[in-house]
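Data availability (excerpt). The following record was deposited with the supplementary files.
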Amino acid sequence: MIQGQILTIDPAFPTQNDTVTIVYNANEGNGALQSVSPVYAHAGLITTNSSSPTDWKFVQGNWGTADPNVLMTSMGNDLHAISYHLPTFHSFNASVQTVLNLAFVFRDAAGNTVGRSADGSDIYYPIYPVNAGLLTAFFKPYDFQIVALNDTLSVRVASNASSILSVYDNGVLVASDSATKLMQFDLPVSSVGQHMLVLEAEDGSSVARDTAYYLTNAPVSVQNPPAGLKDGANEINDSTVILQLHAPGKQFIYVLGDFNNFMPDSNYYMKRSVNGDKFW
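Predicted structure:
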């Protein structure tokens, strides 16, 4: 749920004391384990004793072996599941250890083929505090999605307690349901530009919120770049730089940088040359 639907975890807001069911979607992430069976989990924990956000503790799974302790059950359609009690499976004392995240990669028996996130990193899922109160989150869309105008965006939201769930798109209410812990719907995409989705969960005594973003492409402006530009950054004067890329076959390109928090932004949507080879 958290990383591009690579994982679906029940309960959706697990605490470190819970029994969890992990469902891994091999079609997502780097897709390396598509059509591979059996699949084995390699599982660890990120705790307050971890030296970094990637320092695994209490790791389970003997790499390169058909370890029955981490063998997953094939559910068909490249979905694989495993269930376990977190303290028992990872052999940690829940009274003295604080778990921050579950950590995973997935593999074939030999360990030669490994399922990871799309960028090759490990897969993480947050652990929530015991008695944290009302929690809510977007499970779709995830990260920052780019969608086409007149398409539909799949939205999936949840809370850890029965509540009124409401979703707003740029401040406009687009969906609401009461006395529920889960809401799913398809959102028609009818306007271009950046959209902020806000989720509110209200249980009568408290309100929890989460946000997600998506961007709808405008039609690409087709215009040849100024004569004499080279691929890369072209300094025109002290305040102007024109960036040109050679990218034949691409439909659109956004420029990302610290100036836009590395998020797609319509202000940095590149023009395409008439022959389609250059973006600038």
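Summary of structural features: The longest helix spans residues 86-90.
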